[in-house]
Design goal:
The protein contains 14 helices and 21 strands. It starts with a strand and ends with a strand.
Length: about 400
C-alpha cells in the first residue's frame, strides 16, 4: 500500500517538528515533504507521532483488578507480591481464560493506547507460540534473566549465559533489578558487575533500591533503566531515584508493568509519571522528556533505533495520529485519551482508525471489524469485541476491563 498523511503537524522526533506530508510505501516511510499514493487529508487538526513503545509489560498478566499488599502495608520485595497474586481470586478467575486470549487482551490494551511495539517480560518458551497471532509487534530479539537474586523465577539460562547470548546476537539483556529493599535485592548492581553483565546491552527494570553509587555505575556502563512508577508506588510506596537517574544522563524508558500492579495503559502511565514527579520534587517533568521515554529511548534500549522510535525515511512506518489538543504536540500526548486516536499504523498497515482514514482500511489486507471505543466508531484489526465476549463467557459474568472500553 502507498499513501500519504497530509495537512498535519509531524513529530519526527523530540527535536524535529514539521508541517509537511509524510509518505508510506509498503512497510516503510518513503518520503517526508511530498505526497505519494493515496492522500489522507488530516485537515490541520491532527498530530502525527512515531507509534509508542511499551518497554515493559507482562502481556499474559494484563488482567484486573490489581493485587497488592494489605491496606497500610507495603512489600519488602516482589516475591511477596507474587505469592499474593497466585493465591488471589483474580488469579483463579484469570486461569479460566486461555493463554491465547490472555495475550490478546494484553495486545489490545496496548493497541488502544497508541502502542505498536511491546517488550513482554517472559522467556521465549512462554510467549513464542502466541506472538505471530497478535495484532501488534512484540519484541522477539532479547536475552532474559528474571531477577538478579536467589528468589528469581529461574527464567532463561542464568545471568552469565543470557548476557553472553545478548552480546553474541546484538540483543538487549533484560532483567528486573533491585525490585525491593531486603539486603539481597539491593545487591543487584554488584551481582551484574561480578558476572560482567553490566554494559550497554543491559536493560534494568524498576531499580527502586539504587544507591547514588549504583546510578553512577549504570551511567558509566551505558546501561538502560526502565521506570514503572505506578507499579512501584502500588507495591512499595516508593519508586526509583528518577531525578538523579535522569540528571546522571542514563537512558530512561517508561513501561506499564502488568495491569495487576501498574496503570491500565501507557497513556495513563505517562500521566501518572508526571504527577508523581511533581509530588516528589516540586517541579515539572517536561512533556518532551516523557515523549522520549516512550519512543526513541526504548528503541535505543532495545537496540532497535535503526527501525523504530522516530519517523525517518527507511524506518518502519509505525505511526500514531492524534487529534490536536494543545499547541505543543508533546502536551497533546500527555492529555490525549483513547478516543483521540485517529489512526495507528504498524509497519505500514493500519490497525486502528476513524472514518477520517477509512480509505486505508478498504484494501482488506487484514481482517478488520467495526467497534465503538468509548462511544466512538473505530475500525480495528481483528475482533476485540469477540475476545471480550469469550472472556465473559469463561469467567461467567460481564467482566469489565478498563483498558477495553467497548460498547456492544
Amino acid at each position: 500500500m502507498e499513501y500519504s498523511l497530509t495537512k498535519a503537524t509531524v513529530v519526527l522526533n523530540s527535536t524535529h517538528i514539521l508541517h509537511q506530508p509524510i509518505a508510506i510505501k509498503g512497510k516503510r516511510i518513503a518520503a517526508v515533504g511530498k505526497v505519494e499514493g493515496i492522500p489522507i487529508d488530516l485537515q490541520n487538526e491532527c498530530i502525527v507521532y512515531p507509534a509508542l513503545i511499551n518497554i515493559h509489560d507482562h502481556l499474559r498478566g494484563d488482567y484486573l483488578p490489581r493485587v497488592g499488599p494489605p491496606e497500610g502495608t507495603f512489600y519488602l520485595n516482589w516475591s511477596e507480591w507474587d505469592k499474593d497474586l497466585k493465591t488471589s481470586r483474580v488469579f483463579q478467575e484469570r486461569a479460566n481464560i486461555s493463554l491465547m486470549d490472555s495475550y490478546l487482551l494484553g495486545a489490545y490494551k496496548n493497541l488502544f493506547s497508541g502502542v505498536c511495539t511491546v517488550n513482554d517480560h517472559f522467556p521465549h518458551e512462554f510467549n513464542e507460540p502466541f506472538l505471530d497471532k497478535l495484532p501488534i509487534r512484540v519484541i522477539r530479539e532479547y536475552a532474559l534473566a528474571h531477577e538478579c537474586s536467589s528468589f528469581d523465577l529461574k527464567w532463561g539460562d542464568g545471568i552469565v549465559t543470557e548476557h553472553r547470548r545478548a552480546l553474541k546476537r546484538g540483543h538487549p539483556f533484560i532483567t528486573h533489578l533491585e525490585e525491593g529493599f531486603d539486603e539481597e535485592s539491593q545487591q543487584g548492581i554488584e551481582i551484574l558487575l561480578e558476572t560482567g553483565s553490566l554494559d550497554e546491552h543491559a536493560v534494568l527494570i524498576h531499580c527502586i533500591g539504587f544507591s547514588d553509587e549504583d546510578i553512577r555505575r549504570v551511567r558509566k556502563a551505558g546501561a538502560h533503566v526502565v521506570w514503572c512508577p505506578a507499579s512501584n508506588m502500588f507495591m512499595f510506596n516508593v519508586t526509583c531515584k528518577i531525578r538523579k537517574i535522569l540528571r546522571a544522563g542514563v537512558n530512561v524508558s517508561i513501561g506499564t508493568d502488568s495491569t495487576h500492579t501498574g496503570s491500565i495503559n501507557l497513556l495513563e502511565e505517562l500521566r501518572y509519571a508526571r504527577s508523581l514527579y511533581r509530588t516528589m520534587y516540586g517541579e515539572d517533568l517536561p512533556a518532551r522528556t516523557l515523549f522520549e521515554m516512550v519512543t526513541q529511548n526504548p528503541a535505543k534500549a532495545l537496540r532497535r533505533e535503526d527501525s523504530i522510535g522516530t519517523l525517518e525515511i527507511g524506518k518502519w512506518a509505525d505511526i500514531l495520529v492524534v487529534k490536536q489538543i494543545e499547541e505543543d504536540p508533546f502536551e497533546t500526548l500527555l492529555k490525549m485519551n483513547l478516543e483521540d486516536i485517529e489512526l495507528l499504523v504498524l509497519a505500514g498497515i493500519p490497525i486502528l482508525g476513524s472514518d477520517r482514514c477509512i480509505a486505508l482500511f478498504q484494501k482488506k489486507e487484514k481482517d478488520y471489524t467495526s467497534i465503538a471505543l468509548k462511544g466512538c466508531k473505530r475500525t480495528v484489526i481483528g475482533d476485540p469485541m469477540a475476545l471480550l465476549q469469550r472472556v465473559r463467557e469463561k469467567v461467567g459474568y460481564p467482566k469489565v476491563l478498563d483498558y477495553m472500553p467497548l460498547q456492544g
